[in-house]
Structure formats: structure tokens, C-alpha cells
Specification:
4 strands, flat, alpha+beta, 3 helices
Length: 137
């Protein structure tokens, strides 16, 4: 089974921003060019890919080898460690972590309520002072 690799490059081709889709499959490469107009934001590009990728008109396949991207070994090591620590530990450790997360959310909620109550108290105090000023004293 062969790998299928897709890539998208967005670049400025005066006066428009252009997206170049490349699709490598079975030792062949197909391409498609899309004009965006104004500079697209990441979210707009993502939305375009999700909604319009299947409608793109790719060129006929040409013989080409897919470029193998070499990733940084330290980065790979870091990502593997991060993934491993996310699921590591005994069930008791996982339970403690879950409890810690729940306490953290409760603490945040309590803090938010305290801030709101203090804000309301200050507002009421201000309103009361204004009323006293308008009583003609």
C-alpha cells in the first residue's frame, strides 16, 4: 500500500494570494491552484479545505517522488514524552489527577462568584452614595 501525501502552500502572487495544493500518490503528483484574493486567515483556509477540497480540479498525474520531510529527533522525543505522560501512572494516580482537576474548576468557579459579589457590593455602595447626594443634604 502506497502513501498519499497532500500539502498546501499559500503564497503572494501579485496582486492576489494563491494556494497551491499538491497531492502525491503512487509515485505520481497532481496539483491544483486556487486564488484566494485578499490574504486568507488560517481559519478561512481551514474552512475552505473542509468545504471545497472535494471540488478541486487537480491536474493529470505526473511522475514524481514525494519529498520525505525529516523531523527533528529532539522534537519527536519531546512529543513522545508528552504523549506518554498524558496516559502514564497507576489508576490511583489518575484518580488523584482527576480529583485535582475537579477541585481546580470548583476553585475557579468560587473565585468567579466572589469577584461578582464584590463587584455588585461596590456597585450598590456607589448607588447608595449617589442617592444620599441627591437628597439635598
Amino acid at each position: 500500500m502506497d502513501k498519499v501525501i497532500g500539502s498546501l502552500r499559500v503564497y503572494f502572487d501579485d496582486p492576489f494570494w494563491v494556494g497551491l495544493f499538491e497531492l502525491y500518490s503512487e509515485g505520481k503528483m497532481s496539483a491544483c491552484k486556487v486564488t484566494f484574493g485578499a490574504e486568507p486567515k488560517d481559519g478561512e483556509v481551514y474552512k475552505f479545505i473542509l468545504s471545497s477540497y472535494y471540488r478541486l480540479d487537480f491536474s493529470p498525474a505526473v511522475e514524481a517522488k514525494a519529498k520525505e520531510t525529516k523531523s527533528n529527533p529532539k522534537r519527536m522525543q519531546r512529543e513522545a514524552r508528552k504523549f506518554a505522560t498524558a496516559f502514564a501512572g497507576t489508576k490511583s494516580q489518575q484518580a488523584l489527577k482527576l480529583q485535582h482537576e475537579q477541585l481546580k474548576t470548583e476553585r475557579k468557579e468560587f473565585s468567579r462568584e466572589q469577584k461578582e459579589a464584590e463587584k455588585q457590593r461596590r456597585f450598590d455602595l456607589k448607588r447608595q452614595k449617589k442617592k444620599e447626594k441627591h437628597r439635598g443634604r
